[in-house]
Design a protein that fits this description.
By secondary structure, this protein is α+β, with helices and mostly antiparallel strands. Helix content is about 30%, strand content about 20%. The structure holds zinc ion (ZN).
Length: about 240
């Protein structure tokens, strides 16, 4: 019975921890200018052998911004060391390094656990993005988010450079015309300069479709069906076009 309830409380704690981590959000959201952190900790217990363990934590932008470390003393069920406020202060001041120690304040209902039953020393290093990097990352995140919202299935980065052919979006006829004229003018200019054939695209050479070097696969991999891509929408030819 005792075992069972121990296990249950352990599982409940794990579950609660997981939820708290998720609720904390990501480092990239909470601290967008942080490129990474390294947190070194030494856990002490107030016994004859005071060092309980060493722990090193690498934190990345994709990590949860959760810095509440459980007290490792078995009997201490509600104790923790919360480095969150320390880290928040450091980031606020763009500090690169910080050291300190902290006592566990849990276990108050346990007589055998004195107020000094556990502590940690911590040593935190934080690496920051430069302002320019931070801006670029923010812009990328915003773009990714926008893309996700409008089209949840599509990969964010197109694998190949795409021709700026209007897809689903219908260009305004006036804009279409303007674009055409601009293109014509550009190609004229280019033609005048180089006396090149008209069709040569002005600047960007069409991306070479690097032919796969490997000879055609023999029998290999008939299994993988090509990932289902939404078939390109065939937009019905616009009737208004007849006017031109
Ligand atoms: Zn404790």
């Amino acid at each position: 019975m005792a075992n069972m309830s121990n296990r249950q409380s352990y599982l409940a704690k794990q579950d609660a921890n997981k939820k708290s981590r998720q609720a904390a959000g990501l480092v990239s959201d909470k601290f967008p200018n942080v490129e990474g952190m390294v947190i070194d900790m030494v856990y002490y217990q107030n016994l004859s052998n005071p060092i309980l363990m060493y722990r090193k934590l690498n934190v990345f932008p994709a990590s949860y911004a959760y810095f509440k470390m459980d007290c490792m003393i078995k009997e201490c069920e509600d104790g923790f060391f919360d480095l969150g406020p320390v880290i928040k202060e450091m980031v606020k001041g763009r500090k690169k390094a910080g050291k300190g120690s902290m006592k566990c304040k849990g276990g108050v209902n346990r007589k055998e656990l004195g107020p000094d039953h556990a502590s940690i020393d911590y040593d935190i290093e934080i690496k920051y993005y430069t302002a320019a990097e931070a801006r670029r990352i923010q812009a990328e995140l915003a773009a990714t988010k926008a893309a996700k919202e409008s089209e949840p299935v599509k990969p964010v980065k197109p694998a190949k450079p795409q021709r700026p052919e209007p897809k689903a979006v219908q260009e305004h006829p006036k804009r279409k015309k303007a674009l055409k004229e601009a293109a014509r003018a550009a190609s004229k200019k280019a033609a005048a300069k180089k006396a090149a054939p008209k069709k040569a695209a002005p600047k960007k050479a069409a991306p070479k479709k690097a032919a796969p070097k490997k000879a055609a696969p023999k029998k290999a991999a008939p299994k993988k069906a090509a990932p289902k891509k939404a078939a390109p929408k065939k937009t019905a030819p616009k009737k208004k076009a007849a006017r031109r």
